[in-house]
Amino acid sequence: MEVDGIISALIVGAVIGILGRLAVPGKQSIPIWLTVAIGIVAALIGSAIVGPLRDTDGIDWIEIIVQVALAAVGVLLATSMRSKRT
């Protein structure tokens, strides 16, 4: 993977994480860096799940929806784990 691919993956992961955080109602008590990390992981997992089914050369909306849903689940899990610690 080249440098521009890594940078674009980080940017896409950050956007996916923020969208996932916005999809979860209420206030989340997790730092922004954790939101970005969750977004990056969700983007990678979502691409792995939907990637073989990809049939478009343009924007794959199904993949984006799956990635945001995974990020929302990740934000929920991270929030619940952090609230149990405090």
TrEMBL record:
Transmembrane segments: 6-24, 31-53, 59-78
Alphabetized UniProt keyword annotations: Cell membrane, Membrane, Transmembrane, Transmembrane helix
Keyword Nucleotidyltransferase listed: no
GO cellular component: plasma membrane
Metal-binding keyword on record: no
Family classification: Belongs to the UPF0410 family.
PANTHER family, alphabetized: UPF0410 PROTEIN YMGE
Annotated protein name in UniProt: Putative membrane protein YeaQ/YmgE (Transglycosylase-associated protein family)
Organism field: Jiangella mangrovi
